[in-house]
Specification:
The chain has 520 residues and is α+β, with helices and mostly antiparallel strands. It is built from nine helices and 23 strands. The strands form three sheets. The protein has a ten-stranded mixed β-sheet with strand order 5-2-1-11-10-9-19-20-21-22. The chain has an eight-stranded mixed β-sheet with strand order 12-13-14-15-17-16-18-23. Strands 3, 4, 6, 7 and 8 form a five-stranded antiparallel β-sheet that branches.
Length: 520
């Protein structure tokens, strides 16, 4: 059975939907499934490192190195020994000649033949290069960076979120790979759990809704089939959090019966198997702990939140989005915070969002469904005197700039920070007509909203110095083009010691569906 992209797309056009020709047939072998995926635009590194390599959680003395052996990336089970020895190396040069650390690690079938190497003994604030060797083959070479210590003059990092495979190619990740950044922060919805969507898409999911560990492994492997995603991982170290679609839409980590808990455990394990994440536990099977604080010298304190694992149901008087332990941990961090910028990595919107004046909240799956806890946490920030707070957020598939206030219904409530919600990598936003109509309505209903733009896709780049935080909204031209160029839509600044953002004079004329008229 020989497949080619032209025949597949011709068949799709005749049928009116890509899901007619992909997954094509439940009887495809793993090799044929891979051939079908590649015919429709997927691509993989040479075996056994088909899914690429990555580094993550950079600290002053080291990073975590990741890869997964998957000779047949879309197979539920790999034809590999139970244990495969994988060699790894870290060097001070791209040719891996000036070796500074090396070793061997066992990749087991229990964890999908993934490996996570916590490298120690590196020097702070340095670039390093790394690679793997297994089964007589070498991986590509990746580049990583350790966190600095002490006085830091600047940090530059990118944030990405919401990358539905069926909604387009990852030109945004191609852009991130080429950015001069110190690290990447992924804000969630790395994969989507549902089945094929059909319609006018350049590609689609290759299987029904995922439920089991094998299902989630194949879905992650499908997403890693975008070369630009693998390139972005190989170019920079990543920090990670998750949102709902890594498991299932709008889930609460503490709700559901035994079938859901088994599904959640499978999803969490598959996520860990495919990410450069430093697991806090020591057991054979991971129970990933996401929330953590990481510092970039004296300049930036990055607080990464987990807004799924511990939440209750929405819209309860005593509901929690953080869970009791994480909330107290966050408040203690606020109390102990030093000088520098304080950045919360937040998977879903913190700021209030009403759809129209006098209307209700648009989505209570975000912090709007946990009103008492939001006010408690933000009041604690205010009372503790925490300054220079910036919250970076994903999920909405559109860009927002919001003032952060302890009480959003009180226009006299003080501004204590700024929230930047980034465009999605690919995941579909509302239509241009909807944005045009509803942007002004959201602006009128939410006095803290400064800016809304929902017609584009991309990522944010944050440039931070001791004096100023700058957010550059980087957008692509076309999700359907894997090499679509990247441009800067607009830039917002926050001055140190002065809460609230303002738009750069040079980009105020850029397209948007809402800007606060008075500005700053």
């Amino acid at each position: 059975m020989k497949l080619n992209r032209r025949d597949l797309l011709k068949a799709a056009a005749a049928a009116g939907a890509l899901n007619v020709v992909w997954p094509l047939s439940a009887g495809l072998s793993p090799a044929q499934a891979r051939e079908a995926a590649e015919a429709l635009g997927a691509d993989y590194d040479p075996a056994p490192f088909t899914l690429g390599i990555a580094s993550g959680d950079p600290q002053p003395d080291g990073v975590v190195l990741w890869t997964r052996l998957a000779p047949e990336p879309l197979a539920a089970e790999q034809k590999l020994p139970e244990i495969v020895e994988v060699e790894w190396v870290v060097a001070a040069d791209a040719r891996l000649r000036r070796v500074v650390a090396r070793g061997t690690v066992a990749a087991s079938a229990t964890l999908g033949h993934s490996v996570h190497v916590p490298v120690r003994g590196l020097r702070p604030g340095r670039h390093y290069w790394y690679g793997f060797r297994a089964l007589g083959k070498r991986s590509r070479v990746g580049r990583t960076r350790t966190a600095p210590v002490g006085r830091v003059a600047s940090v530059r990092f990118a944030a990405a979120n919401c990358q539905a495979f069926h909604d387009g190619f990852y030109a945004a990740h191609r852009g991130i790979a080429r950015e001069n950044v110190d690290f990447v922060m992924h804000l969630g919805d790395y994969i989507y759990e549902h089945g094929p969507v059909g319609g006018d898409h350049v590609r689609d999911h290759n299987a029904p809704e995922v439920l089991t560990l094998a299902d989630y492994r194949v879905r992650h492997a499908l997403y890693k089939g975008d070369a630009s995603l693998r390139e972005a991982h190989a170019a920079h170290p990543w920090f990670l959090t998750w949102d709902d679609h890594e498991v299932v839409n709008d889930y609460s980590g503490t709700g559901g019966g035994a079938p859901f808990m088994r599904r959640r455990a499978a999803a969490y394990q598959a996520w860990y198997e495919h990410m450069p994440h430093r697991d806090a536990g020591g057991s054979a099977l991971p129970d990933p702990e996401i929330h953590r604080v990481r510092r970039w010298g004296d300049l930036l304190e990055l607080t990464i939140l987990d807004l799924r694992s511990y939440r209750s149901a929405q819209n309860l008087p005593d509901g929690t989005i953080l869970g009791g332990a994480q909330k107290e941990w966050l408040k203690r961090g606020v109390d102990r915070a030093g000088d520098g910028w304080h950045c919360w990595a937040n998977s879903i919107m913190l700021s209030q969002l009403r759809g129209r004046p006098g209307g209700g909240y648009m989505f209570t799956d975000q912090w709007d469904g946990f009103l008492a806890e939001r006010e408690e946490v933000l009041t604690h920030v205010h009372d503790a005197g925490l300054e220079d707070l910036v919250v970076i957020t994903g999920d909405w598939h559109s860009a927002f700039v919001d003032d952060v206030r302890p009480d959003y219904d009180d226009v006299s409530s003080p501004v204590i920070g700024t929230e930047f919600t980034a465009h999605s990598v690919t995941s579909g936003a509302y239509s241009a007509d909807w944005n045009k109509t509803n942007g002004p309505l959201m602006g009128a209903a939410n006095p803290h909203l400064q800016y809304f733009e929902g017609n584009r896709y991309g990522y944010d780049v944050y440039e931070v110095t001791p004096e100023r935080w700058s957010t550059h909204m980087r957008v692509i031209g076309d999700r359907r083009d894997p090499v679509s160029p990247v441009t800067t839509l607009t830039t917002f600044h926050v001055d140190r010691g002065r809460a609230g953002a303002y738009e750069d004079e040079g980009t105020k004329g850029s397209p948007a569906q809402y800007r606060r008229p008075t500005g700053r």
